[in-house]
Amino acid sequence: MIIGVPKEIKEGENRVALSPSGARHLLLDGHEALIQEGAGEGSGLSDQEYLDAGGLLVSSPEETFARADIVVKVKEPLPEEYHMLRQGQVVFTYLHLAASRELTDELLARKVIGIGYETIQAEDNSLPLLVPMSEIAGRMAVQVGASLLEVSQGGRGILLGGVPGVPPAEVVVLGCGVTGRNATKIALGMGAHVTILDIDHEKLRYIDDVMHGNVITVYSTPLNVERSALYADLLIGAVLVTGARAPVLVKEGIVARMKPGAVIVDVAVDQGGCVETTRPTSHSEPTFVKHGVVHYAVPNMPAAVPRTSTFALTNATLPYVLQLADKGVERVVREGSALTKGIQTFAGKLVHPGVASSFGMDYVPISSLL
User: Fold this and answer.
1) Are residues 234 and 136 in the same domain?
2) Do 300 and 312 share a domain, yes or no?
3) 72 and 207 part of one domain
4) Could you tell me if 99 and 155 lie in one domain?
5) Which of 63, 230, 278, 343 could bridge to 58 as Cys pair (CB 3.0-4.6 Å)?
6) CATH at 60
7) Is 126 inside any structural domain?
8) How far is residue 137's CA from residue 368's CA, in Å, rounded to a whole number?
9) CA distances from residue 235 to 1, 130, 192, 259, 263 in whole angstroms, order as listed
10) Domain containing 23: what range?
11) Residue 287 located in a structural domain
12) What is the SS3 assignment for 319?
């Protein structure tokens, strides 16, 4: 098969969906890696490196999409790319359809086979292709939040870890998944006082165990979320419902009562955000202030560290790209691969229940379409 890798066009997106070593692996497996010229530049990967690995270079996104059986991307197709999509083509990327009815309708109308990294689910219910970017986003959330707490950035003027005789910042993390755990680890390592909330007792027990009781674990209820948000200097939204829109846990009325100069980093923004005042921002204009609170809501946070992100992403996605290329979608579904749960649109139908429920649309099991 021909696997096409277009250059990402989302603002600030410097990642690329396939490293040169990934291209070599596809070649050795009998497939072709079609790389748009300049696709890897943002990650410090030259066209020559792809050529040396056996990849084929093309000059335009139109040629990349036209020739590819499988289009592998980092971020969802944008309106400028819609016209290049065609019936039966596989688009394998972070789709986050629950945050975009427009993209959902386009994939359905064009009968594209849309497979989202974020909904591929292993037998243990883990999300293997969301993990590496969630790890990076969780760690970055604290790094970004610590910077935004500086007065020059509009923050409260608090050093995250404090100093002897002066207390550290209060960091509140909503969600105890991969993003939340990584945010907690970094915040604790920087000396902050950390509280993490979740509705899963086992996850809270795990955090309490591995952090040796140094993190405050709180069962998430509306009242506990409100109380925590009001004392937070840095609030990190790390809530995830697989394939569906993130629940809004922090209402605008709560934000209005938070400390002046407090910071919100809503990592859940790519699924709609878990803070009511959140709206997507960009790497060029990453923040805005609402009710005196600094908001950071960049949907593609890991793009700020593209070299790390590209290699971490390729390490995770390549085995699944090879599965698709070797077997095709129908065989993957019949064999019960973890890839099956990643399929969100097929033959003009919504085949992922989470996405369907987000829009109140009909859900059709993919097995009934084969």
Assistant:
1) yes
2) no
3) no
4) no
5) 63
6) 3.40.50.720
7) no
8) 37
9) 45, 22, 12, 11, 6
10) 2-111+307-369
11) yes
12) helix
193 is catalytic: no
Same domain for 182 and 68? no
Q: For 341, how many CA atoms within 13 A lie in the half-sphere containing its CB?
A: 17
Active-site pick, 193, 198, 270, 352: 270
Between the alpha carbon of residue 215 and those of residues 171, 187, 205, 212, the distances in Å are: 10, 10, 11, 8
Would you write out the chain's pLDDT as a tens digit for each of its 370 residues?
A: 999 999 999 989 999 999 999 999 999 999 999 999 999 999 999 999 999 999 999 999 999 999 999 999 999 999 999 999 999 999 999 998 988 999 999 999 999 999 999 999 888 888 899 899 999 999 999 999 999 999 999 999 999 999 999 999 999 999 999 999 999 999 999 999 999 999 999 999 999 999 998 999 999 999 999 999 999 999 999 998 877 889 999 999 999 999 999 999 999 998 899 999 999 999 999 999 999 999 999 999 999 999 999 999 999 999 999 999 999 999 999 998 889 999 999 999 999 998 998 899 999 999 888 8
**Residue 329 CA: distances (Å) to CA of 43, 87, 336, 364, 367:** 30, 14, 11, 16, 11
Per the structure, how many domains does the chain have? 2
Asked if 270 is an active-site residue, the reply is yes
DSSP E strands: which ranges in 153-227?
170-174, 193-198, 216-219
Residues 6 or more apart from 126 whose CB is under 8 A from it? none
223 assigned to some structural domain: yes
Question: Which amino acid is located at 49 in the chain?
Answer: E
Asked if residues 197 and 271 have their Cβ atoms less than 8 Å apart, the reply is no
DSSP 3-state percent helix, strand, coil across the chain (nearest 5): 40, 15, 40
The answer to whether position 273 is within a domain reads yes
The residue from 96, 193, 295, 352 that is catalytic is 96
Where does a domain end: 281, 304, 327?
304
If asked whether residues 107 and 151 sit together in one domain, one would say: no
pTM of the entire predicted model: 0.88
